[in-house]
Design brief:
Shape: flat
Mean pLDDT: 91
Number of strands: 0
Radius of gyration: 14 Å
Order of helices and strands: HHHHH
Largest sheet: none
Low-confidence stretches: none
Number of helices: 5
Helix content: over 70%
Distance between the termini: 38 Å
Number of domains: 1
């Protein structure tokens, strides 16, 4: 992990929280009410990480795609769409393809 200056402590804490949240969510019955709530938590933590990390590091990209994927897994398709639109702003071209793919997945599961 690269040095993130004054945000380093917060990033470390959020990384620990999201790891625990993902492990918990993935051990639940898929699409159960508990799993939906757990993936909603993962999405919120990933979003917090994304707010602290730039696009020019792998962690920043992973946090953004993780927030979207977890929102889809939480069946919160409106949130997923809002995150996709937010993260398109300022996204480098190589990230746009990943966002487009997540948008397609979101639309196929929503509709």
């Amino acid at each position: 992990m690269r040095d993130h200056g004054e945000n380093a402590e917060r990033i470390r804490a959020l990384n620990g929280q999201v790891t625990t949240a993902i492990i918990y969510a993935e051990h639940l019955t898929p699409e159960s009410p508990e799993a939906i709530r757990a993936f909603a938590d993962v999405s919120r933590i990933e979003e917090a990480l994304a707010s602290l990390l730039p696009y020019d590091c792998a962690e920043g990209i992973a946090a953004r795609t993780g927030a979207i994927t977890a929102a889809i897994d939480a069946q919160d398709f409106t949130r997923a769409k809002l995150l996709i639109e937010r993260y398109r702003s300022g996204a480098p071209e190589d990230v746009m393809a990943a966002l487009d793919s997540l948008d397609e997945e979101n639309r196929s599961r929503f509709g």
